[in-house]
Structure formats: structure tokens, C-alpha cells
Task: structure prediction
Amino acid sequence: MRFEIISEIIHVETIAVGSSIREITRLRKRYGKGRWRKMKGVATIQLANGKVRLTEIHWYEAHGIGKKEYKRKRYLD
Result:
């Protein structure tokens, strides 16, 4: 299900960096080389059906490339 982040992401933490990311090869092929990090945080999202939920989200980011591939992991409300 698709979603849109409608608030600031808070409680941001780094989960993994560089070669400890399982998907590092795919990320580098798709988006380019960079210091990739897997991150997690909490944000309010709006689901495709219109519901608004507080959710833990994960994503990948690299300096100069930006944040990519947001995933919602669990609802916190």
C-alpha cells in the first residue's frame, strides 16, 4: 500500500552503514556510489485510503544522493 509522509521524521537512528547493509550492491547499481546508510525514524503518514497513522519507517540515504526507498514497518498508534 502506498503512503505519503505528512510530518517531520523524528527519533532518527542509523541501523546499518556500508557493507553491513544487505542491499548495498543493488543500491549502488541503481543510485550510484556513496556512503549508504540504512535509517529508521517515526513519522505521521497518510495511507492511500485516507487514514492517518503514526508509523515507524525505514529508508536508505547517502550524502549527495538523498533519501530513497521509504518503507513502513509498524504502526505506533
Summary: The helical segments are 24-31. The first helix runs from residue 24 to 31. The two ends are 18 Å apart (CA to CA).
